[in-house]
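hiii so um. not sure if this is the right channel but i have a protein structure encoded as tokens and i wanna go backwards to a sequence. like what aa goes where. can anyone help
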């Protein structure tokens, strides 16, 4: 649900952009799995209240980032905004899952 929200927000933000590119990148950083969603949309001019519910000027309900961050935190992760010179970037950081050894019975 979180990834779908990020992708849909990016697509809405790029509607009027001349170049429409959404890049989803995953990797391991400091023992965390980090998934970044970067787009070439209009960006976020004032991110200080970004994760508050019922955002003024939101195109839908203004709850997407608030709920998305709550979901990610339930999995001991975090959702953050990473300021960019152009466009927008959000990062989802998660603890890697442990792999259990399969036991033969």
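sure thing!! here u go:
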């Amino acid at each position: 649900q979180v990834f779908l929200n990020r992708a849909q927000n990016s697509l809405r933000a790029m509607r009027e952009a001349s170049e429409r590119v959404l890049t989803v990148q995953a990797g391991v950083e400091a023992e965390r799995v980090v998934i970044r969603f970067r787009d070439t949309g209009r960006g976020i001019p004032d991110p200080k209240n970004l994760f508050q519910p019922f955002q003024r000027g939101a195109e839908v309900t203004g709850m997407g980032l608030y709920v998305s961050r709550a979901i990610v935190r339930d999995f001991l992760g975090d959702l953050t905004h990473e300021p960019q010179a152009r466009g927008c970037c959000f990062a989802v950081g998660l603890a890697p899952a442990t792999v259990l050894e399969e036991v033969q019975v």
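oh and The helical segments are 2-13, 64-74.
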